[in-house]
Please model this.
Amino acid sequence: MRKSLRPPKRYQPDPKLLTNRTILVTGAGDGIGRVAAITYAKFGANLILLGRTRQKLDSVRDEIAEDTGQSSLIIPVDLARFDAKSAVELKRGLEGEYFCLDGILHNASILGPKTKIEQYPYDDWIQVFQVNVHSAYLITQALLPLLRKARDATIVFTSSGVGRRGRAQWGAYSLSKFATEGLTQVLSDELKEDSNIRVNSLNPGATRTAMRAEAFPSEDPQTLPTPEEHMLLYLYLMGPDSLGVTGRAFDVNN
Ligand code: NDP
Model:
């Protein structure tokens, strides 16, 4: 297994790190995705906010507008229903708005049931893979032409500790994160010869969000780091400081 990496020690992003960069964040309405989108905007990016719940996306868009004066594009979409046709529509819509795309943070995921494989329901299995893997592949494939037009572009997939070492009862979620690591490696290898697109995975580790509370209902959330505390790595991988770094698996904590 490849060694997981951390961001450079004492990394200090330039306040203009993402100026003039257009970045798509999936699952931008809540949790880590919400904070990443707002952080990227503070560092100068134009945001495309994709997520399931329109009101949550509206609220992120409003917060970005208040903070930075930037207007973001919102794309309310249920990734559980995202298919090849949706990908074509997404591509057409973004091509009409932007010359290029500088980055994608694939962040949206669902946990699914925490139960043994022996009892794992097939429908949940399919849905977890649909949201966590298939939609990310479709979005990436559709938007590669726009990413290729950028001076340098970055794709960040969100992994998990259970995507690097399997653990009992994490079922399809764990497997979907192993697939995410595979997608990172295959895509990075395919793109490194003929493009300026880097592809990496990131494991945020235990973070105070709704998903973590769902996975560990008896845990005190106050003992966990907030998404804000992880943003240095999210910035490093999204901005030009990670130029040339590709096919690697990063960890907020080791
Ligand atoms: P949350 O559940 O807090 O947020 C997930 C986001 O994804 C929400 O905005 C949610 O939208 C969106 N989403 C979920 N399903 C869909 C769907 N079908 N269509 C569109 N959007 C959808 O998760 P976290 O912030 O905790 O997790 C973010 C990422 O980090 C995930 O990939 C997760 O696997 C990973 N991770 C998290 C850890 C943690 O401890 N929190 C640890 C390791 C990895 P809505 O709010 O509208 O439902």
